[in-house]
Amino acid sequence: MKPANTIPLIVLSIAFLNAQTAIPVSAADRTGLEVTIYNQNLGLVKDTRTFKLAKGGRVELLLEEVAPKVQTETVLPVPQGKGRFTVLEQNYEYDLLTPRTLLSKYVGKQVELLTYDQNNKLVERKKATLLSLNEKAIYQVGNDIHIEHPGEVVLPEVPDDLVARPSLRWLAEADKGSHTVQISYLTGGMSWKADYVLKVNPDKSSADITGWITLNNESGIAYPDAAVKLVAGTIHRAGPKKRPRREGLQLAMRAAPQVREEAFMDYHLYTIPWSTTIGHKQQKQVELLSQTGIAVEQEYTVSIVGAAPGRQRSSDPKRPVMTTFNFRNSAANKLGMPLPAGIVRIYSADQAGSLQFAGEDRIGHTPRDEPVRLTAGQAFDLVAEMRRTNYQNLGSRDQIKYEQSTEVALRNRKPKGSARIKVYARFNGDWDIRKSNHDFVKEDAFTALFTVDVPAGKEVKITYTARVEQ
């Protein structure tokens, strides 16, 4: 006998051929496909299909192979031919044809049970009523109750409300003959992001940069030979918050014709200049840009936050010295394309000439001619140590006012080479540096910037006294 299964093998009778009355319009009728992907787990699909109607008047069409995550309220059919074609009613069919959903339609109805011997020869055929399909299928045969069945279950037809794949069912008024309709709709499950590789050259004054676009398709279907466009920027949408995006997959690919960029309303549009196939549950990478010899500047930075009145100094007086690389996104610097938000991974060669990963940072959407600032990590051989050398409370019960003296010791433990370190002293409130042993500039309303060159193997101290009022 055939082994018993939780869901038995189902056989449909010839009556199935007459069960589906809608005219199918499948992906084989597709004559054009365009996909626009946004940063917000959203895609705009423009699917053009051409089909023929044997007669005019009121017809029912089954538009097959649409994205299962289609937002049906956004579907827009645009007839492109001369003949009359008007959609009167639309239904989204997503009760998919599976053994369990098919059997569930026959609970309380009559089916046939087939039993076979060990040689796969039919030995019994009997009528039964499907009583339940909860944990297991339960049948009634005469006065007997059977739990599951070891053979096949024969059903007379497939109900009209089951489809093999998510589909749009249209009731339309149309003329006889050929029709071309572009179906536009929004779907979830599509996203893209940008990733960059910055290879810093040994002199640390120039770098090569490569940008990649990573497409992620979890919308439920594939998009073969599609014209693909990408929108960078945050569009406003009503309704629930955006769903999280998945991280991309690094792929080894080589350069192709560069992606074209253009302004689109208050966003930027990137067009892949060739047709490409985006498979279901696939991540695809396309080169966005590639440029060599852009000018970069390496900096070392320290952030010093002034203590609030009465606050004790930190148990660890050391402050991290961070390594940063800065460059300008300009045509003069061999760039000048609006850069979509993404992660920049920094690499540099070791003494043997082998590239090593040196850190990463995230950039926001960066227009042309704007600066890019990347934090690579903490400098190992540079030390910053802060201590408060004097504190005087000048305030009253109703006023916070104090004067504080601070010393920042900077040490360069590199075997050779001077290090230029920028120290950002930050204050909470109105501040005035009344005394300092180094020049500074007022970076903004809350920050004083000291720039100090520290020779190899040496220590340089910054001392300043600031009066703060809140």
Percentage of residues in strands: over 45%
Fraction of residues in helices? under 10%
Rg, nearest Å:
34 Å
- Kindly report the average pLDDT value: 84
What would the principal axes of the Cα set say about the shape?
A: elongated
What low-confidence regions span 5 or more consecutive residues with pLDDT below 50? 1-7, 12-20, 242-256
Computed structural class: mainly beta
User: How many beta strands in the DSSP annotation?
Assistant: 34
Count the DSSP helices. Answer: 1
Distance between the termini: 88 Å
The biggest beta sheet is recorded as:
8 strands, mixed
Q: Can you offer a commentary on this structure?
A:
There is one protein chain. The chain has 470 residues and is mainly beta. Among the domains are: 1-188, no CATH class; 297-331 and 373-469, Immunoglobulin-like. The chain contains 1 helix and 34 strands. Strands 3, 4, 6, 14, 17, 18, 19 and 20 form an 8-stranded mixed β-sheet that branches. The termini are far apart.
